[in-house]
Task: inverse folding
């Protein structure tokens, strides 16, 4: 995988879009001292090369009724490629799962999941996650306080 060469203007554009993806091309162009057409071409190039993967709204978990955030560590009993692929396919299909990472160390996966309350989280883990292909052991921790969420990537 090659990393695209980013100049200072590209970096400024990326920082501005991370702060507010709804910024217009005219506003972006003014911030980076370009005219709108070259600014638009640069943003489009950043999208086409995959540096910009998409644009998203940041939603409030609390206001949408998700009061519990938990982290589920999973150890697999079978590391065969077909079992791992089946697990990964099914875990990404669960809407309550916000992220899932394949890890090194004692556990094979770390899942970040949300639920309205502890009972719903318990159901998610005991019924859905425990029944995923290849799961051997589960260890769950709950977030007591979120200190940082969805930070911006350093582009300097």
Result:
């Amino acid at each position: 995988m090659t990393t695209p060469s980013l100049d200072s203007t590209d970096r400024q554009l990326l920082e501005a879009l991370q702060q507010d993806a709804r910024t217009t091309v005219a506003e972006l162009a003014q911030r980076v001292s370009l005219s709108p057409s070259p600014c638009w071409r640069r943003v489009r190039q950043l999208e086409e090369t995959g540096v910009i993967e998409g644009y998203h709204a940041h939603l409030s978990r609390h206001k949408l009724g998700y009061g519990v955030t938990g982290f589920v560590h999973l150890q697999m009993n079978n590391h065969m490629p077909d079992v791992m692929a089946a697990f990964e396919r099914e875990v990404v299909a669960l809407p309550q799962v916000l992220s899932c990472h394949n890890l090194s160390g004692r556990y094979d996966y770390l899942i970040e999941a949300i639920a309205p309350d502890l009972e719903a989280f318990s159901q998610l883990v005991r019924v859905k996650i425990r029944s995923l292909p290849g799961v051997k052991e589960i260890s769950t921790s709950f977030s007591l306080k979120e200190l940082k969420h969805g930070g911006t990537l350093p582009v300097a």
User: Anything to note?
Assistant: Strands lie at 68-76, 97-102, 109-115, 135-142. The helical segments are 8-19, 25-31, 36-48, 81-92, 118-129. The chain has two domains: 8-48, 68-142.
